[in-house]
């Protein structure tokens, strides 16, 4: 497995397949995808993109952090789950964020991904909430 910086558009197919199959591919083009401080990572096996994550310089006013980044659109192809791709991607991102002098990484984690993030040092903040059409989520954060 190798990790590379990729374009936002490279994430759309996996976002659609894993996270938003009930929406259009156009809905997988997130508003912050092309911001100058955003970056996108992909985990590859050979030429096959198997895992993605997008990171936006986005502040959550309810969290304490001078330079915050939001993780959004993290997805692993169903055929490759449980092989460590997501862990590797997050660890790579944290190293990159440390180099950028970021101090906080946060996300809205789906209920079924909560344990994954906890194993990587994220903590839950507050009660779960419902995202319409998607399901239960938690605000989670990790110091970088």
What do you see in this structure?
The protein is α+β, with helices and mostly antiparallel strands and 144 residues long. It has one domain: Gcn5-related N-acetyltransferase (GNAT) (Aminopeptidase, 3-Layer(aba) Sandwich). It is built from three helices and seven strands. Strands 1-2-3-4-5-7-6 form a seven-stranded mixed β-sheet, with helices on both faces. Strand 2 and strand 3 form a beta hairpin. The model has no long low-confidence stretch (mean pLDDT 95).
Please indicate the percent range of residues in DSSP E strands (runs of 2 or more). Answer: 35-45%
Strand order of the largest sheet: 1-2-3-4-5-7-6
Low-confidence stretches: none
Computed structural class: alpha+beta
Alpha carbon gap, first and last residue: 23 Å
Total count of domains: 1
Question: Which topology does CATH recognise?
Answer: Aminopeptidase
CATH class: Alpha Beta
Shape type: globular
Total strand segments:
7
CATH architecture: 3-Layer(aba) Sandwich
Q: What's the helix count?
A: 3
Q: H/E element string?
A: EHEEEHEHEE
Residue share in helix? 10-25%
Main sheet?
Answer: 7 strands, mixed
């Amino acid at each position: 497995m190798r990790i590379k910086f990729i374009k936002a558009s490279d994430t759309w197919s996996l976002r659609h397949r894993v996270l938003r199959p009930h929406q259009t591919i156009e809905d997988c083009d997130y508003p912050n995808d092309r911001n100058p401080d955003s970056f996108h990572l992909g985990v590859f096996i050979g030429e096959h993109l198997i895992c993605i994550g997008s990171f936006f310089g986005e502040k959550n006013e309810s969290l304490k952090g001078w330079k915050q980044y939001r993780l959004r659109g993290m997805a692993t192809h169903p055929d490759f789950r449980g092989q460590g791709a997501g862990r590797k991607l997050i660890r790579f991102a944290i190293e990159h964020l440390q180099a950028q002098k970021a101090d906080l990484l946060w996300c809205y984690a789906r209920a079924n991904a909560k344990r994954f993030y906890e194993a990587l040092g994220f903590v839950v903040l507050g009660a779960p909430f419902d995202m319409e059409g998607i399901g239960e989520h938690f605000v989670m954060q990790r110091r970088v």
